[in-house]
Design brief:
Among the domains are: 112 residues; 136 residues, no CATH class. 63% of the residues lie in helices and 0% in strands. It contains 28 helices and no strands. The longest helix has 20 residues. The N and C termini lie far apart (85 Å). InterPro entries: ARM-type_fold, FOCAD/RST1_DUF3730, Focadhesin/RST1, Focadhesin_C. One of its GO terms (biological process) is regulation of post-transcriptional gene silencing.
């Protein structure tokens, strides 16, 4: 294998051989990664061969190879190798004008430690103070990263910003708890308490110092990149800081979204960020500004819903959801679909406080009350409803929650509860119980109910918890027979049992018409025999036998009537 790869590298040394050469290096990278060959020897062989390489695919593959070197445990014993490859990556960043090469080199750099990266940082990216200082290169001031951004080729500025995002992410992930402990009652106005080589400190200093000067500056794009870097969601919030200065920037269209993202990511720990966001949300409620202002709040809802109180969020959610629903009804669907995407992410997040989830559920429920079950809007909202807190689903779909059960309401309740059961593996069939209690009183809904129940039974036919539910159903049927309940109630429950048996046995594919009880009765005996041959269903043998006899006598009695 190695011999063949070496042959490709030696022979494919022109422009036409770039792809083959790149693929060969990718193969060598995998061999190094799984320690089939030695990375130290490999690089010593490849470095002279590709010293003056300018083919873009080949350079990208070399960067990928270099990125694997710090992941190999034995390379720690070769500091000179680390210095050489990091220096090579910086060289690619400076000398090659291609954006793809710059991205590959900077991505590879993030595989190394901050100290290793800084130690080889080119003079072009250092300020005069650092160049004239005798201090070690591994303690380069964080402000040098601004010099790095300013001296980047404009075509690579976005890539350089992505690189610094990864550097900030690495720094934040290493913060200890004490970094987030504020001395006194007020948040600090700067990051002077962070180390001088902190990337976060350097970027923050630049943002605040150029707050009123960036718009007319040649470094306007650099300033916006700094805001973009701070606006990312990291593994932890940024350290404590007084974020009131964002008020000066949020009115600028180019900076607005970055400011909202920054503040939203800090609300969990920062009082100033929380006040900033509360004021912004209240301004939207009052003015109901453009769609982008609304959607940027929704994109951060999972952060805001964990810190901003319901009395602030509820008016905003009501206003924007109702407006989006009206747009949806007029064939402008995009805004509501985007809002629902963020609502579902919030409802699905277990860390979000329950009170705000309940607010969301109440607003969506009020919309559902006024729409038809056959509408596209209902189907869209249904995907959100199944993520409601359990109590909210019960309030929306329980017959006990309404004074009078009407046919249209019951159909919605059936659809909602069956949809919840479809996506719930923990005792899913229990969601059907309350519907079964009143089902016999609505014969006009029976076919619809059975169609929905059948989907649930089919989905969970291999769920062993369904056995207990069927046993409970058998017990319920035996009880209503013993109590001499109305025949329609007995038959209704028996038909559900038969339908469940057919679905769980796999004979469901033979059932074409849910309104035809006779077709279900015809399939029932074979379905029972098939089902009881399955191990976890065999415990039902006695109960099914007794029920079948009782059912036959019940049917005969009804036919005589």
């Amino acid at each position: 294998m190695v011999a063949h790869l070496s042959k490709i590298l030696n022979e494919c040394n022109n422009a036409d051989g770039a792809l083959a050469c790149a693929l060969a290096i990718d193969g060598i990278t995998l061999l190094c990664k799984f320690e089939v060959i030695d990375a130290v020897t490999t690089w010593a062989t490849l470095a002279p061969m590709f010293k003056s390489e300018n083919r873009i695919p080949v350079i990208k593959s070399l960067c990928s190879l270099i990125s694997e070197i710090p992941n190999l445990s034995y390379t720690e014993a070769y500091p000179k190798l680390i210095e050489e490859v990091v220096s090579k990556l910086w060289e690619y960043t400076i000398l090659n004008p291609d954006k793809e090469v710059g991205e590959a080199a900077l991505n590879a750099l993030t595989s190394f430690s901050v100290e290793q990266i800084m130690a080889q940082m080119p003079d072009e990216y250092l300020n005069e103070e650092t160049l004239t200082s005798n201090k070690s290169r591994d303690v380069i001031p964080g402000q040098c990263w601004l010099h790095f951004l300013k001296n980047c080729d404009a075509r690579k500025l976005e890539v350089a910003g992505d690189f610094l995002i990864k550097m900030v992410a690495l720094e934040i992930s290493n913060y200890l708890k004490f970094v987030y402990q504020v001395k006194g009652t007020r948040e600090p106005t700067d990051y002077s308490y962070l180390p001088t080589n902190s990337v976060v400190r350097g970027i923050s200093t630049y943002i605040k110092s150029k707050m009123f000067k960036w718009k007319g500056s040649v470094y306007k794009e650099v300033y916006l990149q700094c805001l973009r870097i701070f606006s990312q969601e990291y593994s932890k919030p940024l350290p404590p800081l007084d974020w009131c200065f964002l008020q000066e920037l949020v009115h600028e269209p180019e900076a607005k979204n970055f400011c909202i993202n920054i503040a939203s990511h800090q609300v969990v720990l920062s009082g100033t960020a929380r006040r900033f966001m509360v004021n912004y949300i209240e301004a939207i409620i009052e003015n109901h500004t453009n769609e982008n202002d609304v959607l940027i709040i929704y994109s951060n809802l999972k952060h805001l819903a964990n810190s901003v109180q319901p009395f602030t969020l509820k008016p905003f959610l009501e206003l924007t959801i109702y407006h989006a629903v009206e747009l949806f009804k007029n064939d402008n669907e995009e805004q509501l679909l985007t809002i629902l995407k963020h609502l579902k992410a919030t409802l699905n997040d277990e860390t979000i406080q329950e009170s705000n989830k309940i607010v969301i559920a109440q607003i969506i429920s009020s919309v559902v009350d006024d729409i038809d079950i056959s509408s596209k809007l209902f189907e869209v909202l249904l995907e959100c409803i199944i993520l409601f807190p359990v109590k909210c689903i019960a309030d929306l779909s329980s017959p006990k929650s309404v004074k009078e059960v009407r046919v249209q309401w019951l159909k919605k309740a059936i659809k909602i509860r069956c949809h919840v059961a479809l996506y719930n593996n923990d005792t899913p069939l229990n969601w059907l119980n309350e519907l079964m209690e009143i089902g016999s009183s609505f014969p006009g809904v029976t076919t619809f109910m059975f169609e929905q129940f059948a989907l649930v039974f089919q989905k969970h036919k291999d769920n062993t918890e369904c056995v207990l539910w069927v046993l409970e159903l058998i017990g319920q049927i035996q009880a209503v027979i013993a109590d001499k309940s109305e025949e329609k109630e007995i038959l209704f429950l028996c038909n559900i049992f038969i339908l469940a048996t057919i679905a769980f046995s796999g004979h469901f594919v033979l059932l074409q018409d849910f309104s035809s009880c006779e077709e279900m009765y015809r399939l029932f005996p074979r379905a029972v025999a098939t089902l009881l041959e399955v191990n976890h269903w065999s415990i039902c043998t006695t109960q099914v036998g007794h029920l079948s006899i009782q059912y036959i006598f019940t049917r005969l009695h009804i036919f005589r009537l």
